Amino acid sequence: MIDLTPNIILSKPQLGENIGSCARAMKNFGIEKLRLIEPRDGWPNSSAYAISAGADNILDKTKLFKSLIESTKDISLLFATTARKRVIGTKSLNIFEAINKSFDHVVNGGKVGFLFGPEQSGLSNDDVVQADFTISIPLNENFSSLNLSQAVLLICWEWNKVRMSYLKEDNETIKVNKKLKKSTELSNVGDREYFYTQLDDLLSKSGFFYSPEMAPIVKRNIRSLFNRASLTHQDLRTLHGIIRSL
User: Fold this and answer.
1) CA 27 to chain centre
2) DSSP 8-state class, residue 81
């Protein structure tokens, strides 16, 4: 039986209370895989437990990471949640498209992550460019502010709706299309980042980054370009072969 749940990833959350509220929202819908990246007030955090209203099992199993790359290296489909319009080229899906796409990915054996930024500033462009897609949520244009746990709850709510519909239609039997999985398996974030690092190194040696000031922006654009292609493991093997040949 496949675990039909995604990973909720909180990047640099500021308050333990907000982490606890997120865990509570997750448990409401049976989603219990939480990852934290450099929580400001440290981990474990007593305030998170106090406000989680009994979601202790989620907090007990929470995984702690030092960086975005470390926290997502095994994720093969990553979604960044952001309210701001971006110009870096990452493809955007509305929440309904995103949940359907991510659920299909999990059914076929992939690992999905939903990335949320700090309460005050949200995700940076460097964070967003690591994702395969950004998610937009249809809200009141004149008041579109959500707190962290509200955003997590919306993702979990939509995910659970799709999961319940799927289980009902499939008589609670999860079947994996192994042929489809083998031919279309997406590369994970860690493998992609390894390729980008190799490419960055070669481009630096060749003098491609002629301006040190612009290099970070160009590197970010290169990542965005490849991420829009939804690279499979076979795609990455081909690209590694190309740069070795060159």
Assistant:
1) 19
2) E
Which DSSP string corresponds to 125-174? Answer: HHHHTTSSEEEE----TT-----HHHHHHHHHHHHHHHHHHHHHHTTT--
CB of 131 closer than 8 Å to CB of 7: no
CA-based R_g, the chain, Å: 19
Q: Are 82 and 122 in contact (CB under 8 A)?
A: yes
The three-class DSSP label of residue 187 is coil
* Spatial contact of 226 and 182, defined as CB atoms under 8 Å apart: no
Q: What is the pLDDT of residues 100-147, one digit of tens each?
A: 999 999 998 899 999 999 988 889 888 999 999 999 888 888 887 789
In sequence order, which residues have a C-beta less than 8 Å from that of residue 151 and are 6 or more positions away?
81, 116, 137
**Is it true that the peptide bond before 44 is cis, omega within 30 degrees of 0?**
yes
Residue range 152-205, pLDDT digits in tens: 999 999 999 999 999 887 654 445 555 445 446 889 998 999 999 999 999 999
pTM (two decimals):
0.83
| Residues forming a β-bridge with 130 | none
- Residues ≥6 apart with Cβ < 8 Å to 34: 7, 8, 10, 22, 23, 26, 58, 59, 61, 62, 63
